[in-house]
Design goal:
homodimer, 342 residues, mainly alpha, Farnesyl Diphosphate Synthase, two-stranded antiparallel sheet, globular
Chain lengths: 342, 342
């Protein structure tokens, strides 16, 4: 039927990655980015900085602005160069705006380990503060004077929305083909990784070959990350469940682990998938059964193998990028994208 | 207490304006704008152009992109000049995005005479398609290569969100002071009128004095328009009610006609305002009483007098703009902003 469905079900032995070397290298630049983020989310309208701070301060990994900074530095930008740092803050604002809007779209309860903003301040405020942060992102980009970088992030923003709408209209479709699944995660997740890295390289004035290399790195890294996230939602390859495990299943989201499990257990699931995903009739106990079916079908391992392939492509894409600690840290990040789920 | 509350309650005799002369002058440019709008709202994700077409095709007056085109031409731009036309399409996309999001925020049933998009496709799709159109607006702006115009519209976008949030948090406050009311309508409505005109002038390469004149025109025009809209929501100065009359009252929105009526009928309203606005306990019959109180207090006339003052300021601001049919048409538009409500 397809390469993915025939994939081996045992995860290959892969190098254990690490995000810390990159975090350490980028510490000074990222503290400038953080200060800019706090400065630019201010407003005289009090609820805006309150709501923005709730989600921004929760922080997460700041992976996307980190990519912007790292791409610039890997392309030999001097430390603290202004354009990449501003573009990085803009990237985080775009990401935060999409998180605020996604939480409304998905009716999520939690975000970054905290109660979702729309449950505290209401969906209207979350919609409008998302719009505010999105607009502020473009104001930051304008300050760099870098029209090409601005175009890259504007294009990424429209592609992200397209991916989100596509996911919304196909969310509960057990017949989703893997090309469409890859199209969805490329658009909703990987495009911003790609644009974040590309904009950083452009902002640093890198050669075209290096710009394209860093874009390709970001795109493949983003796909690997999302695949690993989707595997982690079913517990990943370990036996311990993360705190948000089960969210995708409980939202009826047709991710790769689920699609593989459905294809591999068809006819042997007593109508379980039809009931829980297609008809959306789920009980709190169903996730346990879903996970057993997903794990039993080898769908976690297969998903992580695909993720590993994309991580390899990300590393290979870096060949035109100058050798050095930044490139090495980016390679370790690609491995980390997958190894955190194993 | 304040100038507004002491204002005369009889509407001054004002020149009857007209929007048609401007529409006729701009017909060719606006047909290029319309074609661009249709072209750029396309997407392979089918629900996006469907939803976008639902609101864009409903059209309305396209007043904001008309301002961009008119400002460029009033500043002597040649017919069909590319930058102003693209900026005009971007302005309409920003406006449409805010309409989609506002309808969710206000839980509106109707928009431009049609069922609101979120009631057909759901709020999640409306949020995401709004984001898509907003991103596409910036893509269009990038194509002009006009960083300054882009900065003007990015800034306007963040100011609009701030105005919307401010309105949201103060919507039901009968003690709203008129400065805050003016701040809200300046931000949520007039800022885009101002930016639309300013960006058109900048896109046409106008002198700084003319750019600032057209910005000031747009800002004052926008305030006049919103004040007249707020008066029309209580029927305006005529005895016939428009089809959306009563919306503001039924949403408990503290607009100037209401604020003036409350101040002028205090102690003689049997707790009507306290019940219907502050406590939000309204019956379908309450609008009739509200309108009687608003009209009886002279609040419609007073609101339109204030609107007329802003229309006069808009016309006066045009003095640095070259004489000619475009400037004359803009003057008639300023009068029309108010006279349509009388």
């Amino acid at each position: 039927m397809s390469i993915l469905l025939d994939a081996v079900t045992v995860t290959e032995t892969r190098r254990k990655g690490d995000v810390e070397p990159l975090v350490r290298l980028a510490r000074d630049d990222m503290s400038v980015v953080d200060a800019l983020i706090v400065e630019r989310m201010q407003s005289d309208v009090a609820v805006i900085p309150m709501l923005a701070d709730h989600i921004v301060a929760a922080g997460g990994k700041r992976l996307r602005p980190l990519l912007t900074v790292a791409a610039a530095r890997a392309a030999n930008a001097p430390s603290g160069m202004e354009a990449p740092v501003r573009l990085a803050a803009a990237v985080e604002f775009i990401h935060t705006a999409t998180l605020l809007h996604d939480d409304i779209v998905d009716a999520s309860d939690l975000r970054r380990g905290k109660v979702a903003a729309h449950l505290i301040w209401g969906a209207p405020s979350s919609v409008l503060v998302g719009d505010f942060l999105f607009a502020r992102a473009f104001e930051l980009m304008v300050e760099t004077g870098q029209m090409r970088a601005l175009g890259i992030l504007a294009k990424a923003s429209s592609v992200i929305s397209e991916g989100e709408v596509l996911q919304l209209t196909r969310a509960h479709d057990l017949n989703l083909d893997q090309d469409t699944y890859l199209q969805i995660i490329s658009a909703k997740t990987a495009e911003l990784f790609a644009a974040a890295a590309e904009a950083g390289a452009v902002g640093a004035g890198a050669d075209e070959e290096v710009v394209q290399a860093l874009r390709a790195y970001g795109l493949n890294l983003g796909i690997a990350f999302q695949l690993a996230d989707d595997a982690l939602d079913y517990g990943g390859a370990s036996s311990t469940l993360g705190k948000n495990a089960g969210d995708d299943f409980n939202e009826g989201k047709a991710t790769l682990p689920l699609l593989l499990a459905v294809a591999r257990t068809k006819g042997h699931d007593d109508g379980f998938w039809e009931r829980t995903i297609n008809r959306g009739e789920r009980t709190p106990d169903d996730f346990k059964r879903a996970r057993e079916l997903v794990v039993g079908a080898g769908a976690i391992g297969a998903t992580l193998d695909v993720a590993g392939d994309y991580a390899d492509r990300a590393k290979a894409a870096l060949s035109p990028v100058p050798d050095g600690p930044w490139r090495e840290a980016l390679e370790l990040l690609a491995d980390f994208a997958v190894s955190r789920a194993t």
